[in-house]
UniProtKB/TrEMBL annotation:
Lineage top rank: taxon: Bacteria
Boundaries of every HTH merR-type domain copy: 1-68
Alphabetized PROSITE patterns for the sequence: HTH_MERR_1, HTH_MERR_2
Protein name: MerR family transcriptional regulator
Region (Disordered): 120-140
Length: 140
């Protein structure tokens, strides 16, 4: 597969693919005319790389972990790296859930206040919300 096709199928830019190649995350062969050619599994690999980046892993960490992710074979060191990253991601998830819960509380308080005052929905703007910060967290 040529670089443009991989980029289109994976939903990334051609520049991103070149970067992944520079970082040792993705390998391409070269045609006689110098064009990059990727194996059939490149699209899935790029999607995995994107997921790992989105989870906050660095390119170096991704490079270290990709072999054991793809083969299912790992060393004690790679398992420790995976466990460390998993713990970090779980902490991120915990923080996101707490943030979501807090936002749900703010919305519930604001909706109760709006309904009680007969105000139109959506009249709460930054700095003018009827819910005070002391109301947050008490709506459960």
């Amino acid at each position: 597969m040529r670089i443009g096709e991989v980029a289109a199928r994976a939903g990334v830019s051609v520049r991103a693919l070149r970067y992944y190649e520079e970082q040792g995350l993705l390998a391409a062969t070269r045609s006689p005319s110098g064009q990059r050619t990727y194996p059939s599994g490149a699209v899935e690999r790029v999607r995995l790389i994107q997921q790992l980046y989105a989870a906050g892993l660095s390119s170096g960490r991704i490079r270290d972990l990709l072999p054991c992710i793809h083969t299912g074979v790992s060393t004690p060191e790679s398992r420790a790296l995976l466990a460390t990253e998993l713990a970090r991601i779980n902490e991120q998830i915990k923080g996101l859930v707490e943030t979501r819960d807090r936002l749900e509380s703010v919305i519930a308080v604001a909706e109760r206040a709006t309904a009680g005052r007969g105000q139109a929905a959506g009249s709460c703007h930054a700095g003018s919300c009827p819910a005070s910060s002391s109301d947050v967290g008490t709506s459960r």
